[in-house]
């Protein structure tokens, strides 16, 4: 969801490679030296940036939750009084995340329980706030739908969009192009919400 075009900082490079390696081989299957080698520095050199692997994992999972919530709030502010446009924007933003940050989805699914309790609670809190943005948009668009049903639909769509790690090898989606994958995910997500009303 970022629009930055400048080169990533060393810290960002470390986090990107840590996410990739953790997703591929598991948190305990990756050493600090391997992460360092992936960005061209010694393993001990990583400690100038992070206290250890646990700190990297926390920053990755808390950081993506913060980015999703912040991006969602921006989308809400940009679509006042237009729940249809807002929901479409939220879907597009989450599709970008699901295609661009696939290792983080895998990491969240497999490693969330490795976080300290305070970090895990923070991730859950941020995720609940992000989901509520969606629930509000769905209920404004479909006011006849009970809140519990709208919330279930939102989480079902998250599950659908967050299935991207299973679509193919890393960096790919459907055979063809990213645009084709985006189009399919968008159509499926909109279809799921449209099915809330007979």
Q: Which spans of ≥5 residues are poorly predicted at pLDDT below 50?
A: none
Radius of gyration: 18 Å
Largest sheet: none
How much is the average pLDDT? 91
Helix proportion range: 55-70%
Tally of helical segments: 8
Hey, roughly how much beta strand do the residues contain?
under 5%
Number of strands: 0
Shape: elongated
Cα end-to-end separation: 33 Å
Q: Any key phrases for this structure?
A:
about 200 residues; mainly alpha; 8 helices
Report on the structure:
The protein is an all-alpha fold and 198 residues long. 68% of the residues lie in helices and 0% in strands. It contains eight helices and no strands. It has helices at residues 10-25, 32-39, 53-78, 83-100, 102-111, 117-141, 147-161, 178-194. Helix 3 (53-78) runs antiparallel to helix 4, helix 6 (117-141) packs across helix 7 and helix 7 (147-161) runs antiparallel to helix 8. The chain is elongated and about 60 Å long. The relative contact order is 0.11.
Secondary structure layout plus pairing:
Blueprint: H1 10-25, H2 32-39, H3 53-78, H4 83-100, H5 102-111, H6 117-141, H7 147-161, H8 178-194
Helix pairs in contact: 1-2, 1-5, 3-4, 3-5, 3-6, 4-6, 4-8, 6-7, 7-8
Short summary of the structure?
This protein is mainly α and 198 residues long.
């Amino acid at each position: 969801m970022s629009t930055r075009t400048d080169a990533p900082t060393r810290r960002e490079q470390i986090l990107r490679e840590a996410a990739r390696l953790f997703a591929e081989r598991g948190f305990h299957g990756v050493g600090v030296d391997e992460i360092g080698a992936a960005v061209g520095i010694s393993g001990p050199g990583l400690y100038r940036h992070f206290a250890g692997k646990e700190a990297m994992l926390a920053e990755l999972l808390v950081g993506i939750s913060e980015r999703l919530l912040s991006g969602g709030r921006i989308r809400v502010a940009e679509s006042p009084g237009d729940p249809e446009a807002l929901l479409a924007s939220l879907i597009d933003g989450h599709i970008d995340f699901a295609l661009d940050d696939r290792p983080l989805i895998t990491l969240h699914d497999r490693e969330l329980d490795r976080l300290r309790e305070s970090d895990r609670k923070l991730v859950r809190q941020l995720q609940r706030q992000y989901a509520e943005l969606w629930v509000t948009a769905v209920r404004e668009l479909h006011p006849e739908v009970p809140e519990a049903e709208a919330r279930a639909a939102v989480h079902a769509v998250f599950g659908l969009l967050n299935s991207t790690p299973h679509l193919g090898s890393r960096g790919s989606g459907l055979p063809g192009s990213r645009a084709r994958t985006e189009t399919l995910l968008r159509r499926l997500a909109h279809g799921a919400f449209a099915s809330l009303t007979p």
